[in-house]
Amino acid sequence: MSEIKINLRAYYNQEAKTRNAATKQDWKLEEREQFHTLANSENKTTLLELGAGPGYDSQYFMNNGMQVVAIDLSGEMVELCKEKCIEAYVLDFCDILQLDKKFDCVWAFNTLLHVPKTDLPQVLKNIDTILNPNGLFFMGVYGGLNSEGEYAHDLAAFPNASSIPRFFSRYSNEALQAVLCEYFTMLNFNQYDVGRGEFVFQSVLMRKNNF
């Protein structure tokens, strides 16, 4: 396992209890509800969540009638998912074909930004492979400017945060749309100003290309 992934696993193992106790902002809940409304209108019943964290999104989809599988690199996060009765596995994004399953939907909220730009095309190909025809794919990430590298919290500003560095890969709106359109049909692209200076949240709804 690469040092990037070792650090990500260690960070999120350490953060699991804190994130399990956190609450989501309203705009995140609205994005999730809109996605479920669309999926439900198309009679889609199966969903894979990439980077499920403590499992609150998976739990929402499951409680609303979907059959859900969740994966995360962090064993601590996967245990929290299982406590919520979610079918969950410790698995890397690059290895989702090991599930040997097909899904109507893939949900990836603020997780694929940890994938290096050189690896993202293969991850997107794998997502395309596991999606059923007309499948839906939601990807939400923080971006706005092109950058890539490991970053650690400033402990002077965030004294209770973990000091373990995390890898982030960020894209401008144009760059993100360009790479995603190589593999999927884009249905909607939203940008949110989330009060993080130059960074914005990019919300992308896509459909599997049926050719």
Lay out the secondary structure.
Blueprint: H1 3-20, H2 26-41, E1 46-50, H3 56-63, E2 67-72, H4 75-83, E3 87-90, E4 103-109, H5 120-130, E5 131-143, E6 147-151, E7 166-170, H6 173-180, E8 184-196, E9 199-208
Parallel strand pairs: 1-2, 1-4, 2-3, 4-5
Antiparallel strand pairs: 5-9, 6-7, 8-9
Q: What's the Cα radius of gyration? A: 16 Å
* Total strand segments: 9
CATH class category: Alpha Beta
Helix content: 25-40%
Class computed from helices, strands and strand pairing: alpha/beta
Order of helices and strands: HHEHEHEEHEEEHEE
Please state the overall shape, judged from the principal axes of the Cα atoms. globular
| Widest beta sheet: strand line-up | 3-2-1-4-5-9-8
Mean pLDDT equals 94
Task: Enumerate how many helices there are, as a single number.
Answer: 6
Quote the distance from N terminus to C terminus.
34 Å
The H-level CATH homologous superfamily, spelled out, is Vaccinia Virus protein VP39
Largest sheet: 7 strands, mixed
Q: Segments where pLDDT lies below 50 for 5+ residues?
A: none
Number of domains: 1
CATH-defined architecture: 3-Layer(aba) Sandwich
How much of the residues is beta strand, in percent? 25-35%
**Which fold name is given in CATH as the topology?**
Rossmann fold
Task: Describe this structure as you would to a colleague.
With 211 residues, the protein is an alpha/beta fold. The chain has a single domain, classed as Vaccinia Virus protein VP39 (Rossmann fold). It has helices at residues 3-20, 26-41, 56-63, 75-83, 120-130, 173-180, and strands spanning 46-50, 67-72, 87-90, 103-109, 131-143, 147-151, 166-170, 184-196, 199-208. The strands form 2 sheets. The chain has a 7-stranded mixed sheet, with helices on both faces. The chain has a two-stranded antiparallel sheet with strand order 6-7. Helix 4 (75-83) links the parallel strand 2 and strand 3 (87-90). The longest helix has 18 residues, at 3-20. The radius of gyration is 16 Å and the shape is globular.
